[in-house]
């Protein structure tokens, strides 16, 4: 089923992207400081979560 294949590929891509972003967030956390990082992280996850569903 092509639909299932496409869904699986997209899931893998999103998973990889989340893994990459997690390491970027970790780097930012050490550089920026907790308060700034937390607010930008909230905005990122809020916009990206609904953006990836469309």
Question: What is the number of beta strands?
Answer: 0
Global mean pLDDT: 74
For the termini, the CA-CA separation is 21 Å
Rg over C-alpha atoms, rounded to the nearest angstrom: 14 Å
Summarize, please:
With 54 residues, the protein is an all-alpha fold. It has two helices and no strands. 91% of the residues lie in helices and 0% in strands.
Report what the structure shows.
The structure is a single chain. Helix content is 91%, strand content 0%. The protein has helices at residues 2-32, 34-51. Helix 1 (2-32) runs antiparallel to helix 2. The two termini are 21 Å apart.
Helix-strand layout with pairing:
Blueprint: H1 2-32, H2 34-51
Helix pairs in contact: 1-2
Keywords for this entry:
mainly alpha, 54 residues, rod-shaped, single chain
